[in-house]
Design a protein that fits this description.
Layout (H helix, E strand, L loop, with lengths): L2 E6 L2 E10 L3 E13 L2 E10 L9 E12 L2 E10 L4 H5 L7 H9 L2 E11 L3 E12 L10 E14 L6 E12 L6 E11 L2 E4 L2 E18 L2 E26 L2 E16 L19 E15 L6 E13 L16 H13 L8 E10 L5 E10 L4 E14 L2 E10 L3 E13 L2 E10 L4 E11 L6 E11 L2 E11 L3 E5 L1
Antiparallel strand pairs: 1-2, 2-3, 3-4, 4-5, 5-6, 6-7, 7-8, 8-9, 9-10, 10-11, 11-13, 12-13, 13-14, 14-15, 15-16, 16-17, 17-18, 18-19, 19-20, 20-21, 21-22, 22-23, 23-24, 24-25, 25-26, 26-27
Length: about 500
């Protein structure tokens, strides 16, 4: 049983000692704190002195915090094990949530991130870092780390020159590796725009901008520098119309919006720019993006409007699409192209260079209170096939009574049906279950079920949970006792 220590009004700790027959004794401490109503954090550390099976000291540090005070924010998330087999060997006895545990045991990497930032009315600045730990059985030493990364944003600001708005951003990153090339990169952009309203609910916004990329990199123990400036220009045209169908204070309001945007990214030679991430190079484009959206609001007397249905369609056409020369998706590409590029990358295919994109659509319908139906598609008009599609139906009374059923398919990659439900038939009993079945592989890939008993006082509960996964193959049973405000104790 853990020992709980109430240190003061704003912090506490739990101390636990795990005695393992085949491994040894592992003490663990979890420290929690709340500095103000908007700030909290926790850090947990465990240490196994001279593992009886590996004859090595093994440890793990993990935790997270959020801090906010005035214009300042400081967040961090730490996940550092002593070795890449820690989760496989010892995670079974860690008292953490099952989904997180399964993800760590099968993950190829762990990430530790942190940043401190300041946000004002017209600008923001933040300094961050990311540390990646390889979890492969035979890890490489060429993992790319961002240590550190600075980012600044100038929010749109209306100037005194003809109503022109100015905005911009800048970032500087140092890419580090234990083995392999290192580099420092700066990236900046500036944008000038002016919005015209020739008719009510119609707007035209021409803009010009430019992106500056500069890199100083190490290659074969020699440092070199290179840079590029990429001019960008474009025009966005938007229109919106609505019609009301209201009688005696009740009815519907239908809103239709369209947006047509054109963007020209000048073709600038960037073959000498080293590739580290998606912002390493910017592809040229002469692209039109068409978006259509519709929303239907349900109006009732003396209540706020409710969205009864919504639909969005997006399609893009590039008059001469040119690849960026990297394996990353284009950072300036519209969402409909980015989604298809990610599907191609997941399948291992080269990204398409065709002029027309797929057609992306999303629909959400709430015909009655508590009921919802939503769908999402990415349709390839050339192959007349769905690149991606999903549909889900749901009913929700409250947090303890809800159900969802869904189907999703990604062409040549996956096809699944899934369901989840939570049911509280009586006040002291809560049932929860999740399941995912792969139609492509004709097998159940994951499932979980739990029974939780909570007394009338609601200050403690006891539960039995089972989780089954196929990657890695793992079945877990757990009996848990939870005391509110103090923590959880359990075994599996």
């Amino acid at each position: 049983m853990p020992y709980y220590w109430a240190i003061n009004r704003w912090s506490d700790a739990t101390i636990t000692i795990d005695a393992m027959a085949k491994r040894g004794v592992r003490p663990e401490i979890e420290y929690r704190f709340i500095l103000n109503p908007d700030s909290e954090g926790e850090i947990q550390a465990s240490f196994l002195k001279n593992d009886n099976m590996t004859h090595q000291d093994r440890w793990r540090i993990h935790g997270q915090n959020t801090y906010h005070s005035g214009n300042w924010t400081a967040n961090a998330k730490v996940e550092i094990p002593s070795d890449n087999q820690y989760y496989v060997d010892l995670e079974r006895i860690d008292t953490m949530r099952f989904a997180r545990r399964a993800m760590l045991r099968s993950s190829r990497h762990t990430f530790s991130t942190g940043f401190v930032g300041w946000s004002g009315e017209e600008s923001s600045h933040h300094l961050g870092m990311t540390w990646v730990e390889e979890m492969e059985r035979y890890p490489a030493n060429d993992t790319l780390q961002r240590l550190p990364e600075y980012h600044a944003v100038l929010l749109p600001h209306r100037t005194d020159i003809g109503g022109i708005e100015a905005s911009g951003e800048m970032s500087a990153t140092y890419f580090h590796r234990d083995e392999g090339d290192k580099a420092g990169r700066t990236r900046g952009s500036a944008k000038l725009s002016r919005t015209y309203v020739p008719l009510p609910s119609v707007s035209l916004t021409p803009y010009v901008s430019g992106y500056l990329l500069g890199t100083r990199y190490e290659q074969n123990d020699k440092w070199s520098s290179t840079g590029s400036f990429i001019p960008v220009a474009g025009l966005n045209a938007a229109a919106e119309a609505q019609r009301s169908f209201i009688r005696d204070g009740s009815g519907f309001v239908h809103v239709v919006g369209t947006n047509v945007g054109f963007r020209h990214v000048h073709n600038v030679e960037q073959d000498d720019m080293p590739v580290f991430d998606r912002w390493s190079r910017i592809a040229a484009q002469d692209q039109v993006v068409f978006t259509l959206s519709q929303r239907l609001f349900r109006m009732k007397k003396a209540t706020s409007p409710e969205e009864a249905a919504s639909m969005m369609l997006e399609w893009a056409y590039d008059f001469k699409r040119r690849p960026s020369g990297t394996s990353y998706v284009d950072p300036l590409a519209p969402f409909v192209r980015t989604l298809r590029d990610q599907v191609d990358l997941g399948h291992g295919r080269p990204m398409r260079t065709g002029n027309a994109s797929d057609v992306y659509g999303k629909v959400i319908v709430r015909p009655f209170d508590r009921w919802s139906l939503d769908g999402e598609v990415l349709f390839d008009p050339v192959a007349t096939a769905f690149s991606m599609a999903s549909i889900a139906w749901g009913w929700e009374k409250d947090h303890d009574n809800r159900i969802r059923l869904g189907y999703r398919v990604t062409r040549e990659l996956a096809e699944d049906v899934w369901t989840s439900f939570v049911w509280r038939p009586v006040s002291f009993l809560r049932l929860n279950a999740n399941m995912n079945y792969s139609l492509k592989n004709a097998r159940l890939t994951s499932s979980s079920a739990s029974i939780i008993i909570t007394p009338k006082s609601d200050c403690w509960n006891i539960g039995l949970t089972t989780v089954w996964n196929t990657y890695p193959m793992d079945t877990t049973y757990r009996l848990v006792f939870n005391l509110k405000g103090m923590g959880t104790s359990g075994d599996r």
